[in-house]
Amino acid sequence: MRIGVVTFPGSLDDGDAARAARIAGAEPVRLWHDDPDLHGVEAVILPGGFSYGDALRCGAIARFAPVMETVADAVQGGLPVLGICNGFQILCEAHLLPGALTRNQHLHFRNRDQFLRIGSTSTVWTNQFTEGQEILIPVKNGEGCFVADEYTLDQLEAEGRVVARYTRGNPNGSQRDIAAITNEAGNVVGIMPHPEHAVEALTGPSLDGLGFFTSVLRALAGSSAGGQLAGGNHR
Amino acid sequence: MTTQPDTATSGAAAPRSVPNQPPAAALPPPGKTAGYAATDVLVSEFDGGPDTVQRALNTPEELQPHTELGLKDDEYDRIRQILGRRPTASELAMYSIMWSEHCSYKSSKVHLRQFGEKAPQNSRMLAGIGENAGVVQISEDLAVTFKVASHNHPSFVEPYQGAATGVGGIVRDILAMGARPVAVMDPLRFGAAEHPDTARVLPGVVAGIGGYGNCLGLPNIGGEIVFDPCYQGNPLINALSIGVLPVARLQNKAAAGVGNIVVLLGARTGRDGIGGVSVLASATFDEGAEQRRPSVQVGDPFMEKLLIESCLELYDAGLVVGIQDLGGAGLTCALTETAAAAGTGMRVWLERVPLREPSMSPTEILASESQERMLLIVAPEKLEQVLQVAAKWGVWATAIGEVTPSETPGLPGRVVISWNDHVVVDVPPGSLADDGPVYARPIREPADLILLQADRAETLPRPTTPDELRATVLRMVASPNLCDKSWVTEQYDRYVLGNTVLAQPEDAGVLRIDEGTGLGVALSVDGNGRFARLDPYEGARLALAEAYRNVAVTGAEPVAVTDCLNFGSPEDPTVMWQFAEAVRGLADGCQELGIPVTGGNVSFYNQTGAAAIHPTPVVGVLGILDDVARRVPMGFPPPPTAEGDLLFLLGETRCELSGSEWAWVTHGHLGGRPPKVDLANERTLGALLSAGSQRGHISAAHDLSDGGLAQVLVESCLRRNIGARVALPAHEQQNTPFVYLFSESAGRALVAVPRGHDKAFVALAAEYNVPCTPIGITTEEPVLQVHGQFEIPLDELRAAHTATMRELFGGPAELAKRHGDPEHASRPDEPVNLLAPATAPVSVEDEAVAPAGVEGGAVAPAGVEGGAVAPAGVEGGAVEPAGAEAAPAVSRPSDAEAAPNPAYAVDSREAAPEAAAPASSPDVPRSETVGPKAGLAADEPAVAGSVEQTKSVPKPSPSPAEPDSPAEPDLSGAEPPAQAAGGDSVSEAEAASFPASGVDEVVPGAGVPASGVGEAGLPASGADAVAPGAGVPASEAEDVTAAPAPPAESADSDVERHAKGRRVEKDRRSSAGGSAKGPRTNAEGPVQD
Questions:
Q1: B980 and chain A: CB distance < 8 Å anywhere?
Q2: Contacts of residue B986 in chain A, CB cutoff 8 Å?
Q3: Which of A53, A107, A147 sits opposite B1013 (nearest CB)?
Q4: How near does any CA of chain A get to the CA of B929, in Å?
Q5: Contact: B495, A106; criterion CB under 8 Å
Q6: How close, in Å, is residue A33 to chain B by CA atoms?
Q7: Over 60: is that where the pLDDT of B60 sits?
Q8: CA nearest B2 in A: which residue?
Q9: Residue A92 annotated as catalytic
Q10: pLDDT of A170-228, one tens digit each?
């Protein structure tokens, strides 16, 4: 399975996302922001970092990168896309996910090990978890406060699209403790904390992050065996 | 898709077409670049053009401002001698920069030689002192490079940018060696924790380090945070970086190869940082320090990230002959050092340098310390490829000159620099880079040292009863120097790059270098200014021993040293004596330990007026771990059996309390002699720890230093919430339970040994001849029990340990200090925030109570700072105003609750006349309360800070996006629509900001030259506008209105105020305990709770 990891100028966790994909058993493929070709990858990760130095607003420039036009098109065809941290911000800016990520309410960058509760296991990226499962992965961001209007929030909850919530403390003031959401089809997931930093006992607080990457592999295996994308059921 | 400036290509063509010219011939380059015509126009403004070599020859007697530039008369005479004429204005600036203390090491050179002379034989060292950073081979084909440097003065003047560019500068040093930077660490020292100016400096510094390092993608894996009043007017902001390189990729700075092209890579050159090294770093602070803010550089981490990636790509493609970073001293330093290193000459056309300010004079271009630039020496045939790589990453690259041959065979060449056809510089580069003045300055032992050493802390009254010991433990772990620092370290990314095996608060940072083999390094950086004050020779050796031990406890083998030597003015013979002693101690220590000093940095002039800081040698030690999987953490692991792991104390405990944290926290005492250090013992201890970890005998290990055994037990327990049951060794001679708990004897560590390994471990310790005392076991029950003395539940310890920093810098107390209260009072949204109605008045009270606390504090602790800060008369002029203020304010809370605004307004008006400054802030009178010495230092910054505050606050408040109040349902409901409009509002934001920045610079698909963006007033730290700092509220006030997200810290106030509302009661109580005064009183605050 080939999983693409996009590098924008200012991407920082791209190597870590590629490592996580590799540990999960995939073949990571590095994609370049300026190259619209997805090189035949079956899923795409938009990694964390400060693309374009967070100029204008986090992710606001990256959404216009040539590679993002291809990604946005492919998403309509069911391409699984995981946006982590800055990747989540880019997905929101690109209107592939609703809402926006704003400055942490305490206004500090905050890096800590964070518990999440999995809210939806029907996405391409979370089918290896159980509903309500608590996982521990690092959070590190300055602008990770998820906001949306009440209607959108209600809709996300009603449709089971809140993929994970912060538990045992909300590190950035996100509305309704939302840490991760998905689109209607369940193939696009944006998550603020960093699952790619919880894939090795040596360097992470747990191995809980691995589930995101093994999930997509399973979904892809299912779809290539003739089944539907896991997220497809959701619609 | 490119943002490549025209000059890159047109400039590139020119040198190739120009034959090597006789240096002084001053022929204009035929392919003169276009695009900066403004400079041509401006020539007329120079009254006949810039000061050229020809003009200097014609006007030999013209007076020059050499003293203003920091050059002594005899130095100026020597310059004339070297040149055979008077220097041009540009040359004079270059000499003043290169011959400054900061660049020339003119006072320290004679002492630093010992590092080379006494260096132990070492086959690992690939590059050492004199290079940008030392390089140490760690395997057949891998090497690491590491170095620590200071950015003290800029960080005091402008905390955010000063600290940020400190990180940027050290990272470029690492990059210049051919390495990929992989981590940073920051040893930081601030004034008294409770001093209002510390609340200005620390949050800004921390935000700057985080803002820059996080954006570069470098994990921050350790460091120190130390508070001491001696750093009040002169905080020490040191930064360490480490990088990894294949041995074959090692770069050097020599501008070799006549005809090679000189390329300037990275950010454009602006007016920032002019005079940084000579004006800021090489002079003592006096009044008006804040007016030097333009001397502080401004950082752009995004540009640096692109610079790193493009340089690494250039190295890997083999496109670079030589490389040098531009930091302090800018182009001047890079041009002359690269030429001098190769013995070649250089011809440079300054008008080709891409500028942010087209009106810059040649002298300014040469002196600018604009960040994120590198100088490359490139073979002509590879220039095109170099430019392509730069274009790929969206970085400016410009050919600005070429390497020229020596005029006379056998002699080095000359550096000739022209600007729009005017030759403004013609110098032998070696005279700037290598042959600066060298001084053997007079040294004299401080007259007070004997008295100081006679005043031993071992004679101070000590706690004896179990209850007193218990209270002391709790007070100590909550004291500013020993408390939990996560409030700071959570602002740093420690995970990025995915190779961080251990990071703060562990003893050393451990990084995996090779994923295949598990090869890694451990790194620790330590210093103890109090010890060095008592005995600089031993103090330096103690710092070395501690860093060495911190590396050893992880199981690593220490192999190399870097140092940052922070001292007062070298013109003071007593400071020079301290320096000489410390260097001698460090060199001797390295010889004894068998590990070389690979490089470092000297920072002089760390003083305010006549008062120097404690001599503070900060020492970094690098160790190698053949497999990071066997690293030993400091926290007790959950014991595999109910019986727990066994605890052993390694090393010998003596009654050594002088200079200790206990003496300082409890008695505000500094005197006596520091603990003895026996480096042979450190070596065997290190060897034992390494052997023990290799055999799996050790499940946790923690070095004993500040705070002694008590601190270590608390930290190791709290790390994973595992308790310990401890029986202190039998009382013998002077060693009471108190001494066992709080003595700071060197050469000790606490280890946890799993059951079944204990016999083998004890035998191993005997083999290494290391004293090994069983002192207890770990327990699942979360309690620290000391047999026959006391029990403290871990929750109670944690509460005490973790509250301090938050209360000092994250709570309402901090926020009240950092914001002009009048503005706060006038905030229209204030009453809306119902969550914490009491917060505003409480801040008032806090503000007012604090000075009142001074009164109390000054009485009770018997001059806590007595010796160190404020000679007795702490209250002096301060108590009166403070008390006056306090009385009404304290009684106000309840009315203020109803109408907080008038309360604020009244207070500030009262404060204004006392402030004796245009900016009125309650800070000002309070800063005076700290006493003469600190007051000197504090007044200026306090005023500066409050000026900014007053400006800053009103701006954010009207911004609709700003009030992100936490857990505030009403607001959050109302606010989101604006934010949530996310994507759509892109265009609005663009519309708002593009006109200023220039649309072509924000082309997606290429790196955005961030300066442009910054100018547009975006969250990214600004460029040309030498904004006084994102860390300081004011700077970004403008931004807030322009940018959709509130970037400024200035908005902190409400948000945190509300978030912290619930803690208000607690703050109130603890501040009454004396949050405004010395370490002791503060420490007692929480205890009295």
A1: yes
A2: 56-57, 60, 63, 93
A3: A53
A4: 30
A5: no
A6: 7
A7: yes
A8: A34
A9: no
A10: 999 999 999 999 999 999 999 999 999 999 999 999 999 999 999 999 999 987 654 44
> What would the mean pLDDT of B711-725 be, rounded to a whole number?
97
What's the rounded mean pLDDT across residues B819-845? 33
Please list every residue in chain B whose beta carbon sits closer than 8 Å to the beta carbon of residue A105.
964-966, 1055, 1059
Rounded-to-integer distance, Cα B931 and Cα B865, Å: 9
> Which residues on adjacent β-strands are paired with residue B791?
B785
Q: What's the rounded Cα separation, in Å, for the pair B557 and B1030?
A: 40
CB distance A52–B993 less than 8 Å?
no
Q: Which residue of A has its CA nearest to B628?
A: A202
Considering only CB atoms, B498 lies closest to which of A19, A49, A152, namely A19
Q: Is B1026 on the interface with A (CB under 8 A)?
A: no
The C-alpha angle B201, B203, B205, rounded to 5 degrees, equals: 65
Contact B982 A34 (CB under 8 A): no
Q: Where are the alpha helices (H) located in B706-838, listed in sequence order? A: 708-720, 737-742, 758-767, 794-805, 812-818, 821-825
| Per-residue pLDDT at B275 | 66
pLDDT of B1-56, one tens digit each? Answer: 333 333 333 333 333 333 333 333 333 333 333 333 333 333 333 456 789 999 99
Taking residues B565-588, report their average pLDDT. 97
Q: How many CB atoms lie within 10 A of CB A159?
A: 13
Chain Cα centroid distance, residue A175? 18
Tokens at residue B287, please?
A: 């009044």
> Tell me: the pLDDT tens digits for B249-260?
999 999 999 999
Quick one: which of A192, A187, A61 has its CA closest to B990? A61
d(CA B239, CA B217): 16
pLDDT of residue B297: 78
| A174 contact partners, CB below 8 Å, separation of at least 6 | A144, A145, A146, A147, A166, A192
- Chain B residues with CB under 8 Å of A34 CB are 1, 1005-1006
Determine the average pLDDT of the residues in A1-30: 97
**Tens digits of residue pLDDT in B94-122:** 999 999 998 899 999 999 999 989 888 77
Asked if A150 is an active-site residue, the reply is no
| B832 CB-near residues (< 8 Å, 6+ apart) | B963, B970, B971
